[in-house]
Design goal:
Layout lengths: L2 H28 L8 H18 L6 H13 L6 H14 L1 H6 L8 H14 L3 E5 L5 H9 L4 E6 L2 H13 L5 E5 L12 E4 L6 H11 L5 E5 L10 E4 L7 E6 L1
Parallel strand pairs: 1-2, 1-4, 2-3, 4-5
Antiparallel strand pairs: 5-7, 6-7
Helix pairs in contact: 1-2, 2-3, 6-7
Keywords: Membrane, Methyltransferase, S-adenosyl-L-methionine, Transferase, Transmembrane, Transmembrane helix
Protein name: Putative O-methyltransferase YrrM
Organism: Allorhizobium borbori
Length: about 250
């Protein structure tokens, strides 16, 4: 299934789950049933039930709060202009574009993690590195500044994040940094000495197989927080930050 079709299917599931609950309410009232709830509470109940159905349909948990408030926002749209909801929806879609299709949330690495990765680049003498799912390019721009002789790539599919990242690279005049607008599955990892990712548990087994097939012997796959199931890392780096980040290192 193409990426566009995956997104369309996701949005169809959102609408379908709301429609199922709404139809259920209509049938319930038509049969003489009544709920001792005011309109706002009924709308919240509609959203809550739709969120549960959406999860049963396989929607990522990111959609649950959206499902919850969608009926309320639709009915009580006099307070907030309609364009604001549309703008918020479009902005969310542009940021979480990859999350809906690949079940990869928008995680951001912190500066202490940047420093740990910088140390790994120096330790391994890596001349090419890539951040798979680079977000707003924090890792890319930091490493590009710290290692001007290394080429640092960022791979991202969320359009708004790509635009922000390209602007940061341009403004920072980072000639050794690139932002690639493509899926991580379409990137050939064979040219990189170090591959970094901060994804989710879902894609890790597939990503590890891709790395083994494409990366050269001796190169390094670094996963933030999510280990590869059933594969022992060569080393685990504990980052001294608030969330106690762990970097799992896999030698190819």
């Amino acid at each position: 299934m193409s990426r566009l079709n995956q997104h369309l299917l996701t949005f169809a599931k959102v609408l379908a789950s709301q429609a199922i609950v709404f139809a259920g309410f209509l049938l319930f009232y038509k049969l003489g049933g009544r709920l001792p709830l005011g309109v706002p509470m009924l709308l919240l109940l509609q959203g809550a039930l739709a969120a549960i159905i959406g999860r049963l349909f396989g929607l990522w948990s990111f959609w649950m709060p959206i499902q919850l408030i969608l009926p309320l926002a639709t009915v009580y749209n006099e307070v907030v202009p309609g364009w604001a909801y549309a703008a918020a929806f479009v902005a969310s879609a542009l940021v979480f574009w990859n999350g809906t299709a690949e079940q990869v949330p928008f995680y951001m690495s912190n500066r202490r993690t940047f420093a740990a990765l910088s140390g790994l680049l120096a330790e391994t003498k890596a001349t090419r590195a890539v951040d798979l799912g680079s977000g707003v390019s924090g890792v890319v721009t930091f490493l590009a500044r710290k290692h001007p002789l290394s080429l640092i790539d960022g791979v991202e599919t969320a359009p708004l994040l790509v635009a922000i990242s390209k602007a940061r690279v341009f403004i920072g005049r980072l000639a050794n940094a690139r932002i690639l607008y493509r899926s991580l599955w379409d990137v050939d990892l064979g040219g990189y000495d170090l591959v970094y990712c901060f994804l989710s548990p879902v894609p890790m087994p597939r990503l590890y197989e891709k790395a083994k097939a494409e990366m050269r012997p001796g190169t390094l796959l670094v996963s933030n927080s999510f280990a590869v199931p059933g594969v022992a890392p060569e080393r685990v780096i504990s980052v001294d930050d608030a969330r106690q980040t762990r970097l799992y290192l896999y030698r190819m």
